């Protein structure tokens, strides 16, 4: 940044300022001409001009620039606003305009200073003193020079012996305090700054007034007590402010007895303070710009240093060195987030003790480091012990509790990458944190650069790791994929694969154990004696679903740490083919990266072994299919895309070679007889065009052949497979099948006729039963009843033995009547016709010899007469079987009404039977169960029998209705 020419700041009038600025602008920008405008009372006035081409301007462009507060351009004209002024240029270079635009804040301050001096001109002593200060400072942008010059000028102007200038380091809530103090006339330097109380703060800062002190007048005031350390006889204190922001204070005093400060002295000090404020503000702005430029340069250099390495082990120390040099920290550390996501360990440190590095484990959300990690933003502790932050680990909390924590200022900066939080960069100072807001912002930018460097290093190392892994995986795959039919060479290949795996995993020893198809084990080792069967079984017991670290207790002898990973493959991906084991004397367990590589290596091994097994099985299948083809009676030929025969089985050779000669190498489409070639050509074209293939029937040497052609792919090349079958035997077989089908159809028809006959017979039987029952009830029973009545009348007329004989005859007749009635009811119970199914079943249960009960479920309804009769007969026959064969203590009838079906269940607690026993009873002539099954089938239902010896029998009838 170019410094403002001293002459501009020293100009006594606005026109002089404008003349100097116009000339300076033309020189710096190479413009043809320049014009300076200044705003006063809302109007824009021309102040000065220089050069040619100014006739192009009418002032409108300058007004737009002043109103908009931004650079305006029209043709060769350009207008640059600065505060309450505008610099208008004709034909200026862009580089020169950019340079002037950077000086705009300083130009604005200089113009305001000139206007202020011009407004105060003619005030005599004040004007001369201010002019003296301006000349003394000579436009300096060195803050120390400005502050010392202001203190010396103020002391000399008042004839006092001492003065100092202090800038506020903190202010607010009615109080303020200065930082470094620049003095004149004092015996020694100030330390600790100057405090400003609420009364002084109100008058100086809030109202912008001066404070006069005279010992004779103010000896017993609070101000005198606050100034007791300085012990002045008279003093004047004036505020320093610029742009409405308090900067600090100007203090002038005298220790000469009888000294006094007048109102003119107060006005003079205030005028000096106002002029000094402008110079201080200019110097601070320049210092800020300088610091920004220096910070940008420092960041650029730090970025270049960080970009110089693509290895994380080298990048982290560079981050720490850059941070310590840039921010003057006493110590620095990079905490890396651990796999658990809750702790951070120090990966690299600078200036920290070894004990601190080894024992500190930061927790997320605890301490400065933990808070920075949790919040993902910078966390500041200016005085950590005093502010009560606490420690992020047990070790630091112990140091804080004992008052032994070595640092006060701590800054935590999160290191964020695209993959998430890498860790935290923590800086330590033994004193309070010395960074201001700008420097904290710079620290955040540096952390972002460090994060980018870390991410680049991690990506580079990840790429290298992937290349190494790919090389290992490729080498292992090639070793195991080579054709090594010799068992010894195969074992050598396995041993070399184990060596590659162990080196890739950073292990000292390796072991590969494979499960053989015969149930045995095959081992290959690197730097390791073959383990015993007991040791192998112990290692196999440690297998899990993936790679896992092993503790020293379960490792092989002499190992400090190890890992084991199963080889999982097979057709469905669930077969354990074996396992890979690697160990090392070091006790540090393998990390996540090593375990991830182990998984990749194991997957490659499993994939290669699975492919090898599949190829072996494929070769076996090929041999088996070739054997089948060799022994097949069908003709099998294969041809390449050009139609040349590549294979012919013996059946094809026996049939065709007597006609065509050798088949292998001959054109397939020329093999059959000339009258069949066109048909075969059409089938060939259909096979190549459609996945379903082509079909044709041809006659060769008296054989009728069905030919099927289908396209095949083998080793990336196309071809056609031809299968021809002799249809003569097939035709004979088809005729036999047709003959037997006709016989089966005739048998089925006869069975259907038998079922129809049986249904009609059953219907006729029921009708005959109804007729006999009715005749027994209406005729025979009535005749017997009439005879009984006549015998009863005859008995009343007899006496003695004749009467007893008549009574015996009447008793026999009553028994005969009851037998006739019971026989009639069994033939056709009237309760079924008169009252329905359920009353009939209740009657049936009551008539059974075995104690029986009726259970009903579902909505009761009447069935068709035929269905009710079928259900009744089934229940009657089932209960009859229970009475005759079951030897049961009880039985149960259960009927369930469905929407379109009815279900009848008859169960007992009798002796039960087996299927063989049921078959034996049927062979002996007991056809009750067969009759039940046939009656159910005639009704369109089905019967289920559940019985076993000792647990009774249950018959379940499912009937439509």
From TrEMBL:
PROSITE patterns: HIS_KIN, PAS. Its EC number is 2.7.13.3. Its main location: cytoplasm. Residues 873-961 form the Histidine kinase domain. It catalyses: ATP + protein L-histidine = ADP + protein N-phospho-L-histidine. SUPFAM superfamilies: ATPase domain of HSP90 chaperone/DNA topoisomerase II/histidine kinase, GAF domain-like, PYP-like sensor domain (PAS domain). It comes from the Bacteria. It holds the Pfam family HATPase_c. GO terms for molecular function: 4 iron, 4 sulfur cluster binding; ATP binding; metal ion binding; phosphorelay sensor kinase activity; protein dimerization activity. One of its GO terms (cellular component) is membrane. Keywords: 4Fe-4S, ATP-binding, Cytoplasm, Iron, Iron-sulfur, Kinase, Metal-binding, Nucleotide-binding, Phosphoprotein, Transferase, Two-component regulatory system. Its cofactor is [4Fe-4S] cluster. It is an enzyme of class 2 (transferase). One of its GO terms (biological process) is regulation of DNA-templated transcription. InterPro entries: GAF, GAF-like_dom_sf, HATPase_C_sf, HATPase_dom, His_kinase_dom, PAS, PAS-like_dom_sf, PAS_fold. Residues 621-691 form the PAS domain. It is found in: Cytoplasm. Member of the two-component regulatory system NreB/NreC involved in the control of dissimilatory nitrate/nitrite reduction in response to oxygen. NreB functions as a direct oxygen sensor histidine kinase which is autophosphorylated, in the absence of oxygen, probably at the conserved histidine residue, and transfers its phosphate group probably to a conserved aspartate residue of NreC. NreB/NreC activates the expression of the nitrate (narGHJI) and nitrite (nir) reductase operons, as well as the putative nitrate transporter gene narT. PANTHER family: NITRATE/NITRITE SENSOR PROTEIN NARX-RELATED (PTHR24421), NITRATE_NITRITE SENSOR PROTEIN NARQ (PTHR24421:SF10). This is Oxygen sensor histidine kinase NreB. It comes from Deinococcus wulumuqiensis. The lineage of its organism: Bacteria, Thermotogati, Deinococcota, Deinococci, Deinococcales.
């Amino acid at each position: 940044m170019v410094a403002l020419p001293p002459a501009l700041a020293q100009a006594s009038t606005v026109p002089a300022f404008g003349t100097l600025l116009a000339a300076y602008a033309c020189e710096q920008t190479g413009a043809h001409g320049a014009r300076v405008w200044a705003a006063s009372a809302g109007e824009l006035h021309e102040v000065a001009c220089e050069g040619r081409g100014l006739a192009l301007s009418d002032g409108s462009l300058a007004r737009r620039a002043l109103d908009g507060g931004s650079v305006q351009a029209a043709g060769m004209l350009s207008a640059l606003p600065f505060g309450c002024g505008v610099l208008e240029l004709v034909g200026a270079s862009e580089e020169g305009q950019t340079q002037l635009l950077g000086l705009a804040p300083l130009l604005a301050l200089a113009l305001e200073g000139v206007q202020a001096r011009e407004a105060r001109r003619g005030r005599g002593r004040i004007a001369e003193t201010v002019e003296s200060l301006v000349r003394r400072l000579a436009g300096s942008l060195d803050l120390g020079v400005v502050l010392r010059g202001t203190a010396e000028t103020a002391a000399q102007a008042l004839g006092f012996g001492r003065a100092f200038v202090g800038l506020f380091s903190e202010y607010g809530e009615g109080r303020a305090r200065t930082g470094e103090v620049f003095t004149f006339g004092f015996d020694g330097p100030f330390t600790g700054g100057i405090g400003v109380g609420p009364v002084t703060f109100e008058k100086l800062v809030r109202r912008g007034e001066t404070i006069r002190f005279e010992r004779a007048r103010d000896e017993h005031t609070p101000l005198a007590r606050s100034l007791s350390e300085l012990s002045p006889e008279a003093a004047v204190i004036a505020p320093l402010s610029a742009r409405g922001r308090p900067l600090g204070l100007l203090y002038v005093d005298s220790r000469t007895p009888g000294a006094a400060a007048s109102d003119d002295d107060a006005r003079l000090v205030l005028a000096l303070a106002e002029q000094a404020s402008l110079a201080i503000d200019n110097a601070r702005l320049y210092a800020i710009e300088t610091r920004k430029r220096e910070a940008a340069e420092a960041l650029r250099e730090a970025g270049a240093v960080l970009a110089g390495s693509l290895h994380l082990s080298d990048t982290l120390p560079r981050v720490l060195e850059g941070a310590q040099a840039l921010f003057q920290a006493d110590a620095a550390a990079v905490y890396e987030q651990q796999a658990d996501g809750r702790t951070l360990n120090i990966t690299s440190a600078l200036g920290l003790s070894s004990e601190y590095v080894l024992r500190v484990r930061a927790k997320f959300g605890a301490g400065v480091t933990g808070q920075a990690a949790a919040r993902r933003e910078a966390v500041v502790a200016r005085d950590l012990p005093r502010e009560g932050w606490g420690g992020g680990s047990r070790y630091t909390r112990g140091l804080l509790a004992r008052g032994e924590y070595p640092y006060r200022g701590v800054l935590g900066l999160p290191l964020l990458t695209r993959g998430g939080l890498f860790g935290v960069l923590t800086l330590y100072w033994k004193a309070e944190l010395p960074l201001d807001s700008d420097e904290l912002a710079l620290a955040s930018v540096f952390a972002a650069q460090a994060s980018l460097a870390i991410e680049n290093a991690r990506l580079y190392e990840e790429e290298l790791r992937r290349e190494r892994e790919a090389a290992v995986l490729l080498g292992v795959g090639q070793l195991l994929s080579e054709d090594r039919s010799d068992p010894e060479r195969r074992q050598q290949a396995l041993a070399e694969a184990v060596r590659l795996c162990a080196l890739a995993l950073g292990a000292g020893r390796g072991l590969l154990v494979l499960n053989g198809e015969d149930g045995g084990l095959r081992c290959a080792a690197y730097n390791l004696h073959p383990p015993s069967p007991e040791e192998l079984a112990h290692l196999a017991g440690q297998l899990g679903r993936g790679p896992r670290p092993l503790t020293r207790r379960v490792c092989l002898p002499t190992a400090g740490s190890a890992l084991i990973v199963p080889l999982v493959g097979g057709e469905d991906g669930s077969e354990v083919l074996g396992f890979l084991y690697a160990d090392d004397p070091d006790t540090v367990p393998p990390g996540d990266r090593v375990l991830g590589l182990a998984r990749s290596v194991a997957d490659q091994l499993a994939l290669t072994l699975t492919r090898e097994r599949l190829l072996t099985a494929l070769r076996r299948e090929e041999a088996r299919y070739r054997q089948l083809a060799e022994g097949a009676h069908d003709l099998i030929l294969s041809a390449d895309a050009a139609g040349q025969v590549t294979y012919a089985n013996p059946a094809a050779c026996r049939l065709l070679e007597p006609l065509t000669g050798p088949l292998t190498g001959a054109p397939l489409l020329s093999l059959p007889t000339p009258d069949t070639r066109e048909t075969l050509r059409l089938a060939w074209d259909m096979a190549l065009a459609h996945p379903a293939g082509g079909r044709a029937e041809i006659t060769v040497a008296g054989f009728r052949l069905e030919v099927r052609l289908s396209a095949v792919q083998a080793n990336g090349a196309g071809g056609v497979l031809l299968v021809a079958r002799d249809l003569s035997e097939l035709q004979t077989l088809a005729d036999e099948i047709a003959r037997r089908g006709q016989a089966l159809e005739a048998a089925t028809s006869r069975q259907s006729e038998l079922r129809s006959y049986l249904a009609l017979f059953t219907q006729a039987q029921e009708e005959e039963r109804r007729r006999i029952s009715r005749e027994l009830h209406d005729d025979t029973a009535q005749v017997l009843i009439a005879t009984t009545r006549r015998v009863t009348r005859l008995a009343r007329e007899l006496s003695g033995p004749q009467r007893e004989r008549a009574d015996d005859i009447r008793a026999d007749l009553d028994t005969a009547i009851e037998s006739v009635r019971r026989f009639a009811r069994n033939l056709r119970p009237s309760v079924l016709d008169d009252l329905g199914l359920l009353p009939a079943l209740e009657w049936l249960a009551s008539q059974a010899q075995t104690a029986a009960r009726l259970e009903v479920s579902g909505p009761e309804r009447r069935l068709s007469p035929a269905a009710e009769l079928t259900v009744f007969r089934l229940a009657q026959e089932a209960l009859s079987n229970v009475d005759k064969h079951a030897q049961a203590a009880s039985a149960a009838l259960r009927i369930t009404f469905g929407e379109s079906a009815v279900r009848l269940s008859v169960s007992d607690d009798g002796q039960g039977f087996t299927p063989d026993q049921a078959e034996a009873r049927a062979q002996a002539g007991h056809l009750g169960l067969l009759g039940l099954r046939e009656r159910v089938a005639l009704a369109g239902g089905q019967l289920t029998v559940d019985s076993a010896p000792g647990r009774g029998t249950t018959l379940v009838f499912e009937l439509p209705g």
